[in-house]
Amino acid sequence: MTVIGNLKPARLAALAAGAVLVLAACSPAAPGVTASSTSTPLQATTQSTATASASPSASPGTSATVGALVAGFPQKLLPLMPGATVISSSFDKGATPATVALVASVTSPTAAVVDFYTKELEAQGFKAVPGEAVGSVASKDFVRGDNETVNLAVVEAAGVSTFTVGANVAAESAK
Questions:
Q1: pLDDT for res 90
Q2: Spatial CA neighbour of 7 closest among 105, 107, 104, 151
Q3: How far is it, in rounded angstroms, from Cα 168 to Cα 142?
Q4: Alpha-helical runs (H) found in 37-91
Q5: Residue 126 in domain
Q6: Which domain holds residue 127?
Q7: How far, in Å, CA of 81 to CA of 102, rounded?
Q8: Rounded to whole angstroms, how far apart are CA atoms 142 and 148?
Q9: Is it the case that residue 3 has pLDDT exceeding 80?
Q10: pLDDT of 88-104, one tens digit each?
Q11: Inside any domain, residue 71
Q12: Cα separation values, 38 from 10, 102, 104, Å
């Protein structure tokens, strides 16, 4: 595995949150569990429009939501794959670099998800880094310039691909 740059706490937290959301999306929700502004990342959600409240350690430009693209989400940078349903999204435009994450699911095979995002990112000047998986999870990394990165991870179960796309990019790229 090649590591590019240093992970900052905000990036690591975004990556961890994305991993938790992917795992939660692959697990059935517990009966009667609902989302609220006080829910923890490990709780399953059954409502699709809850918005996360800012934590004391979150930067002022951070926003996240469940079941929709958060306001200001840079759809040009990370477009939603056609036919996909948003599970959650987040955007920290105040961080340097800006941090963007999308968790979604689609009834397409893993290869179709990887192909879609590879084409979209390469069209924006990102280059794929060698490697196609981490363990049994499809995972692809992309870089642009010296410090812009995107990671795509896809888990497929029962005909549904759940994917996370996370990006750390220059603020001007997150539009």
A1: 95
A2: 151
A3: 11
A4: none
A5: yes
A6: 9-26+60-173
A7: 11
A8: 8
A9: no
A10: 999 998 888 999 999 99
A11: yes
A12: 20, 21, 22
